[in-house]
Amino acid sequence: MAELHQKIVGYDLWYLKLPVTSRRDHGIGSVAGTCEVVVLRLTSEDGTEGFGEASPWSVFTGTPEATYAALDRYLRPLVIGARVGDRAAIMQQAMHAVAHCTEAKASLETALIDLAGRISGVPVWSLLGGRCRDAIPLSCSIANPDFSQDIELLARLREDGVRIVKLKTGFKDHAFDIMRLEHIAQNFPEFSVRVDYNQGLEIEEAPNRVRDVAGFKPDFIEQPVRSHHYGMMAKLRQMFDVPLLADESVFGPEDMERAAREGICDGVSVKIMKSGGLTRGQTVARIAAAHGLTSYGGDMFEAGLAHLAGTHMIAATPEITLGCEFYQASYFLREDILEDPFQISKGQVVVPTGPGLGGRPDISKLNRYAVATAVAA
Amino acid sequence: MAELHQKIVGYDLWYLKLPVTSRRDHGIGSVAGTCEVVVLRLTSEDGTEGFGEASPWSVFTGTPEATYAALDRYLRPLVIGARVGDRAAIMQQAMHAVAHCTEAKASLETALIDLAGRISGVPVWSLLGGRCRDAIPLSCSIANPDFSQDIELLARLREDGVRIVKLKTGFKDHAFDIMRLEHIAQNFPEFSVRVDYNQGLEIEEAPNRVRDVAGFKPDFIEQPVRSHHYGMMAKLRQMFDVPLLADESVFGPEDMERAAREGICDGVSVKIMKSGGLTRGQTVARIAAAHGLTSYGGDMFEAGLAHLAGTHMIAATPEITLGCEFYQASYFLREDILEDPFQISKGQVVVPTGPGLGGRPDISKLNRYAVATAVAA
Questions:
Q1: Which one of A26, A65, A96, A203 would you mutate to disrupt binding with B, by most B Cβ within 10 Å of its Cβ?
Q2: Euclidean distance between CA atoms B282 and B261, whole angstroms
Q3: What number is the ipTM of this complex?
Q4: Touching check for A34 and chain B: CB below 8 Å?
Q5: How close A26 gets to chain B, by Cα (Å)?
Q6: Positive or negative, the Cα torsion across A228, A230, A236, A241?
Q7: A99 vs B59: CB contact, 8 Å cut-off?
Q8: A251 reaches B (C-beta below 8 A)
Q9: Segment 333-372 of chain A within 8 Å of chain B by CB
Q10: Lowest mean pLDDT among B20-29, B273-282, B345-354
Q11: Positive or negative CA dihedral for A121, A338, A95, A69?
Q12: For residues B27 and B199, what is the distance between their CA atoms, to the nearest angstrom?
């Protein structure tokens, strides 16, 4: 226990641009070329290291520049010299030390728990309430504007044992969405299909398009309209019997409480990059469950380090029942940053059992992909 | 009219650190040393220039780093090559091109209207609906942890004809707030007093402290608790007959609609840096008025260029009835950035009548205070 009284003495940052293998189009924007993330390393007095990843998306949670500045300038002073064990106090301060920047706060909490876990010799999930599952069903997103490439991806996923896909819709025309739903239903019938608009629909077109899509009986339809369009979300939820999920409409517990109260959704995408940390992510899932709503573990365009954080969070949160989406390290990045690959087996993410996150980034990869760093010599 | 079909060909940025004369403590944080703002200059094909200022505050709206990146990387592509007259289209795209960064969006709209106004030879207020007032009562904030310095400021304000002050409370102990309220009531009875907690109170202490302060019958009491504490805001509003105003709880029209519906306030602080533009600021004031709520023109830690934008917005918005707070250029910055001083006369901000904003920054000052720039050679 005394070891958790150690102070945090090292605080290093890498701003990475990671090459990706394909283009991803979502309702609110696209990612192509590179995926930009920031990695934080905390070091305690005995030399133990804890890592966290911030995975911003400029059109959704914030920009990588804002993330890097939040970590480098605004959060650093709260952490240097603080005690490893004082995570709740540090995160309470972090919440208000800088506006927005939820990804930066998520990376900070990840690194704090990783560090505490490594010092204590226990996995991150044991510090978040203990484990409720040792594997998490994986959903992979179908989001390529060139559907022929996604057909190849679907074949690869089938081979790999993945049985859930999420079709990203609303970034091209409606006929393209219907064509892809039909193709998947006919040629890949073993897949459960989810549909995600990422806010891509205008209010005037949403009811008709969502009706057509609901006819395919997907597992759920996610965030058809803009995050603030709570009224239309509530209406769409009532119109169809397919569950309606909220993503951009719900960042943290404050949004979740309101979303549940206003009846805008049947469930929610829980993402640590939105909630501003693993603990707040758990709270979102628990508020949802208290209202009889379901949830799954979503993510941003992440590398494997953030996947690990999300995996531990879901492993310790029984309320998150609809699996996860941690596919990018394996199916999107040209090369992940972890020393050992992020583990997926038979379409399930494997919950690590080692100390801390159970995995760490390869420093040589961080240095290779860094476009900016703040690393002590 | 054809002149408004010109394209925007120049897009230059200055990230400034402006020295300030004193320390300002608010419930959510402090500003001391320098005030960081970003200035945008747009240039049209005929060489006309339009300016806008983004005035972020890291604990409130966002960081200056996020603002600069938003303008430099994410908003620039929407603007270069766009037509000067297409402001509504540009702002519609800007709203979704980058998450948060409302200050960056406000500076963009300011520069677009300034440019259109200069090209058309009309003031900004004429492009926002026409003028409803030619002067705006000024409120100056009392926020120095060293109250003796604020007593000197109060004497100077009295001399200058200013008759409204806002006492910033909740950053030290309750006795300090009560002492200052008593001192002002006794020694400066000619002043109308407003009270602003800037979220400084915990939920458990808010009712008692606000009750004590309400006993002084201030014009209003603003934002005693955290922005998300809508429930406590609604309760405090019912407890006292002094009007309760929302600031951090209401950024844009989406928040205002909800705040009015949930009955959390009697009025709102309208700030272009929160709403993400002048037009959206007008909308906030109009939603408030439609609900029978009042509003005043607030600001962030701004230089005179942002003050000018706010002045034109208020000049064209009859619904904003409680004056403004554009004091920083005159009473806080060591030196403002405008070529000609921001005009205050007998405690009233003077609404400019020249083309565009009716004032422009001194480029030599921008260059002197810049810590980063993106200026075409």
A1: A65
A2: 19
A3: 0.91
A4: no
A5: 13
A6: positive
A7: yes
A8: no
A9: none
A10: B20-29
A11: positive
A12: 6
- Per the CB < 8 A criterion, the answer to whether A183 and A40 are in contact is no
Please give the share of chain A, as a percent, with pLDDT higher than 90.
96
Cβ atoms of B194 and B139 within 8 Å: the answer is: yes
Closest CA to B14 of B377, B368, B283, B292: B368
Best CA proximity match to A59, nearest among A33, A91, A36, A40: A36
Between CA A279 and CA A129 the distance in angstroms is 10
**Token match 């006369």: residue?**
B345
The size of the A-B interface in CB pairs under 8 A is: 66
Which CATH architecture group holds B127-350? Alpha-Beta Barrel (3.20)
| Type and span of the H or E element at B124 | helix B124-127
- Chain B, window 89-108: residues with a beta carbon less than 8 angstroms from a chain A beta carbon: 96-101
Cβ of A70 within 8 Å of Cβ of B63? The answer is: yes
CA distance A249 to chain B (A): 12
- Taking the CA of residue B268 and the nearest CA in chain A, the distance in Å comes to 20
Question: How many angstroms separate the CA atoms of B308 and B344, rounded?
Answer: 11
Q: Which amino acid is at A72?
A: D
Give me the pLDDT at residue B1, please.
Answer: 54
Using a CB-CB cut-off of 8 Å, the residues of chain A touching B69 are 63, 65-66
Residue B46 is classified by DSSP as T
Provide the pLDDT for residue B28.
86
First to last CA, chain A: 30
Q: Enter the tokens of residue B223.
A: 């934002």
Q: What stretch(es) of chain B map to CATH 3.30.390.10?
A: 2-121+362-374
Q: What is the rounded distance in angstroms from the CA atom of residue A331 to the CA atom of residue A44?
A: 34
Which CATH entry fits the domain spanning A2-121+362-374: 3.30.420.40, 3.30.360.10, 3.90.79.10, 3.30.390.10? 3.30.390.10
Q: What residues of B are in contact with residue A228 (Cβ under 8 Å)?
A: 254
Mean pLDDT, to the nearest integer, of B298-316? 98
Q: Which of A328, A308, A275 is nearest to A143 (CA)?
A: A328
Q: What is the token pair recorded at B55?
A: 């005035």
The single residue listed with the structure tokens 């390869």 is: A362
The 10 Å Cβ neighbour count of residue B267 is 25
CATH 3.20.20.120 residue ranges for chain B? 127-350
**What is the DSSP annotation of B335-371?**
S-SBSSPPPEETTEEEPP-SSBTS--B-HHHHHHHEE
pLDDT tens digits, residue range B78-137? Answer: 999 999 999 999 999 999 999 999 999 999 999 999 999 999 999 999 999 999 999 999
> Which residues in chain B have Cβ-Cβ distances shorter than 8 Å to A58?
74, 98-99
Sign of the CA dihedral with A298 first, then A302, A307, and A313 last? negative
A100–B62 CB contact, under 8 Å? yes
Tokens (6 digits) for B181: 């309220």
Helix (H, G, I), strand (E, B) or coil at A78: helix
Any CB–CB contact under 8 A between B142 and chain A?
Answer: no
What mean pLDDT comes out for the span A244-263? 97
Percent of residues in chain A assigned helix, strand, coil, to nearest 5: 40, 25, 40
Which helix (H) or strand (E) segment is A66 a member of?
helix A64-69
Provide the residue type at A263 as one letter: G
